[in-house]
Protein: Exodeoxyribonuclease III
Amino acid sequence: MKIASFNINGIKARAEALPAWLKAAEPDVVALQEIKSTDEAFPHEVLDGLGYQIVTHGQKGFNGVALLSRFPLEDVVCGLPGDDEDVQARWIEATVVGDRAVRICGLYLPNGNPAPGPKYDYKLAWMARMHARVQTLLATEEPLVFLGDYNVIPQDEDAAKPEAWREDALALPQTRAAFRRLLHLGLTDAFRARVAGPGHFTFWDYQAGAWQRNNGIRIDHLLLSPQAADLLREVGIDKEVRGGEKPSDHVPIWIDLNA
DNA sequence: ATGGTTGCCCCGCAA
Structure:
């Protein structure tokens, strides 16, 4: 089961690039972030004929997440539990049934800038809520995959210019500590389970020629429960997508599970 | 070098 995460930065803007990548990469399951569309306005025709079931958790103008699956999707949950006041569309869960059932949790973690400030407080509170949700799901002992745009640079080696991110909400010590608390629950960073060292990125800013200079960061992650980590076959980053026509500022990252 | 670019859809805000 090939499972990918892709922050597309607008489904309407990616009406050509998204299906082109799907045809080339042939993932079974995809978590999309920043669809920037309501559920009603989601252009389903963009994905017609590609064989995916689609569930969306959208919002007008910004945020918004979705799951695509070639296998049946069951028990869909929209929204991160733990705060009934939170209206931001950043979390979607479903169980995908292939050779075996895998719980897929797609997420778009808050950016948090500027820090300090209310947006950073929201980021840290959201990470605490995610921690609680992960604990709840781990108790099921199902294979779990938590994937998406975490807006977290886990370590200095995950940025081309770590000094430029020192004061940024994506790399502040409190952000990294909250990310480590997720890992300490027993989750595995799938990419780091297979690839060591610097120079592996999933995001390059549109500004200042970041792609041409390879000034990137690794902020899109797949975290695996122990039962999912046992099934891990392969990981990859589809870096070439960033050099295509009208690209997102993120590229897809994926795993292949024996499931 | 306090810049630069993109997407949303009504133009300023988020990233």
